[in-house]
Every structure is written in structure tokens, then in C-alpha cells.
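Page 47, continued from p. 46.
Same chain as before, 268 aa.
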Amino acid sequence: MSHLKPIIYDTAYNQKALDQMQINEEDETYILKYPTVYIVKDADKQDNYSVYVGETTDIKRRTVEHITNDSKDRADWWELNHSNTAEMYVIGHEHFNKSMTLDIENKMMQYMASVDVVKRVNNRRTNQQNLYYSHDEMEKIFSEIWLKLRKFDKRLFPLERTIRDSALFKASPFHKLTDEQLDAKDKIIATIETNLKNRTEKGKLIIVEGDAGSGKTVLMSSLFYELNQLSKAESENPILRGTSQFLLVNHDQQLKVYEEIAQKLDIW
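Result:
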């Protein structure tokens, strides 16, 4: 039997439900042995969602890790693990490989952070992949996944065009950057690291120029987000760890967009 369409299983998010999850024989390989993408969701009393998006090569082992270990160290996992209403979607596909699931995960976080009813996205890493075998299939497969997820929950998974038209989506730090944008971001981060390491200057001004629509806003959003991630206590970057980031915005409406993104991604 060919699995040219996404395979999605919906289950309650707890150890018992995971152990008892019934998987069709023809789906077992793609759910239990292939890389998968998963979404854990929970709604509050106002029907606003907290979600976690992840990818793994072993969905059962990874879920057990979340339930038994991560809940001890992280408040977001503690809340999900102690909820009676949390659910998980496990997504498989015949054409999934590690690089594609990382790309799907990244795009799923971009979409989730752009949905109005999502108030918190708990996985906040970026996993943009370069070229890989079957990379040209990713967009089509993602759209098929999203369309199938809408059958489970239309509020959490609205129409793609609705998301793409939103200001949150357009300013998202999870956009896949072009080679030019990636090069600019790497150079800016390297300059910041050099300036901090040497501490010979009080400050440094970096100007990014480009025509309207050239991607400056996306670059700025991605840069600010990555600097924030590199500053966290668990960061492996000793130069940027412990630093602070501030974004000055001279447009009230755009400021509200960035504030909402910051709140959803917990980068206040």
C-alpha cells in the first residue's frame, strides 16, 4: 500500500494513551520507525492554545522523555503533563527523512506562532535546512499535512491563506532565509561576537540596506530571535550567553506585532 499522503494519529497526551495507541499495520513503519513530526496541544478555559512542535526518530521514546524528564525541568512540559485535556498529533509520511522533518518542524512553528488562538509555542528552536534529497517536495507535503490537520481542529489549523496574510506570519523569525539573508545574518552575528569579545569599542552601528520587499524585516526578526536564543543560560555560545537584546520599532502597529510574537515565543 502506497503512503503518498500524510499519516496522522491523534491521541491523548499521557503514558497510558501512548502505550495503548492503536496503529494500523501498514502505518507502523512510518510512525514508529521513520522520522516523525509531532504536535502537543492544550487549550485553556478561554479556548486559547499552548502548543509544542517537535520532530523525532523515535516517537515513543521521545514522548516518554517529555513525560518523565522534561516535566521536571521545564514549566511548559509540567503543565502539559499534568493536564487532563492535552492531545498529541503524530505525523508520518513515506517520504520523510531527518532533514525534511526538521524543515517541517520549523515551518509548523512559523504557522503555529501566526495562529490567533495560539498563545504560546513552547519549542522555540529554528531548524532551517539547506538542500537535501527530496527538499523540493517539502512545501507540497507540508500543505497536505496542514489540510489533513484541519479535519481534526479548524480553529487551531485555519486556512493556509489566512495565516499567510497575517502580519504575524510576515514578521515571523521562522521564515526560511535566502542565501543572501543567511550570509548577512552570519556576518552580523560574527561582528557582534568580535565586538563583545574585544570590548575595545563602546558600540558599533551596523546598517542593512535594501529595497522594499528585499527581506530586511524577516532578516531583522530572525537575527533578533537567534541572538535571544544564543543568550540563554543553556546556550553553548560563551560570548553571547547572558547578553540582552532590545528591538526599537518606530511604528506602533508593527510594535504590537513584535510584542505578540515575543509573548508567544517567550522571548520577553
